[in-house]
Specification:
Strand order of the largest sheet: 1-4-3-5
Shape: elongated
Order of helices and strands: HEEHEHEHEEHHHHHHHHH
Number of strands: 6
Strand content: 5-15%
Number of domains: 2
């Protein structure tokens, strides 16, 4: 509660803790608007904000799903959804009730009698929507894994990195979020891992450096999943675009490491060694535009690329592997486009 108070006051607003419903009467004026949330209400923040932003309303849901989740019955067909936006003038009527009345339930009845319109919420479960009541800590612990899984479904296409990242988030995500070291901490770790990979490559440890580059990519995927969870609970986006800027950084690191790992021939210029890895990574950025989602995620998975390059360099065929992979990617780029999927249009 103290943390919430500091957050509110930092934005220049007043914060009051009241122990009785009737104490609200002196704090709210007739021109104010009041948002009422049931104790223990656990919902997807985005849809809830959108429903309450439209206008004053009592959020309702079908009676069957509402009673099953523990919400209060309104009439024969509807139950409360635990949230409403009402005019401040209705608060005055709390003075007519006993001092120990339940504020949420009382305001619900007062608002219904005053004719505040009802607005139905979407069906919970659709598009990962959560809308329920949490009464005990055990219920919260039981609900949390399911909620995190729905927040991290993505588009359903998986690569090795995305699968490992999702497993890590399912196992360790709750502990990290509770500790406050969520997406930002993992993003910093991913950036440091990429820099460490570059440093190891500088000292000639190319296979190990590529391994760290692959690890950095997995951390990047974890960052993306944790970001999706944090945004759903109302936290701000990362200042670093984990899916954009970091992807370009890892690509640059892999190009440099592959260049250093290619066998050197007499009289060969550095540009000759740089060109094949650059073309390979460039083609791997173009190909996902034409491929089906299940294959596109594999082409975008830089941990897979780093692992394959590390294995080829250890086997002594780094240069051959890079040239062959670039040629294969170019051939795929010729064969995959069809219909309107073209780089250029006539």
């Amino acid at each position: 509660m103290l943390e919430l108070q500091h957050l509110v006051e930092d934005f220049g607003s007043q914060f009051h803790v009241v122990g009785q419903a009737r104490a609200l009467v002196g704090l709210v004026s007739a021109v104010d608007e009041v948002f009422v949330l049931n104790d223990g209400l656990f919902v997807s923040a985005g849809p809830a904000f959108e429903l309450l932003e439209e206008s004053q309303a009592i959020l309702v849901q079908p009676i069957e799903q509402g009673l099953a989740a523990g919400f209060e019955r309104i009439d024969l067909n509807h139950a409360s959804a635990g949230a409403m936006r009402i005019p401040g003038r209705l608060i005055e009527r709390l003075a007519e009730l006993s001092s120990d009345c339940d504020a949420s339930a009382s305001l619900l009845r007062i608002s219904l009698q005053a004719g505040v319109r009802q607005r139905a919420i979407p069906t919970p479960g659709q598009d990962g929507l959560f809308w329920t009541l949490v009464r005990t800590e055990d219920e919260a612990h039981a609900l949390e894994p399911q909620w995190i899984r729905q927040r991290t479904l993505g588009d359903g296409a998986f690569s090795p990195s995305r699968g490992l990242a999702m497993l890590a988030v399912h196992r360790l995500g709750p502990a990290m979020l509770h500790a406050g070291s969520g997406a930002r901490a993992v993003a910093v770790a991913a950036a440091l891992t990429a820099l460490l990979a570059f440093g190891l490559g500088w000292f000639g440890l190319i296979p190990l450096a590529l391994g760290f580059a692959g690890l950095g990519w997995i951390l990047r995927e974890i960052t993306v999943f944790l970001s999706q969870i944090e945004i759903d609970v109302g936290k701000s986006r990362l200042w670093l675009d984990a899916k954009g800027l970091y992807g370009w950084m890892i690509d640059a690191v892999i190009v440099v490491l592959a260049t250093w790992g290619i066998e050197t021939h007499a009289g060969q210029h550095i540009a000759d060694r740089l060109f094949p890895p650059f073309i390979l990574v460039a083609l791997l950025r173009i190909l996902p535009r034409f491929a089906a989602p299940r294959w596109a995620v594999w082409l975008e998975d830089r941990a897979v690329l780093a692992g394959l390059l590390a294995g080829a360099i250890v086997a002594g065929g780094g240069g051959v592997a890079v040239h062959a992979a670039a040629a294969f990617a170019a051939l795929a780029g010729i064969l995959l486009p069809h219909g309107q999927s073209r780089l250029t249009r006539p």
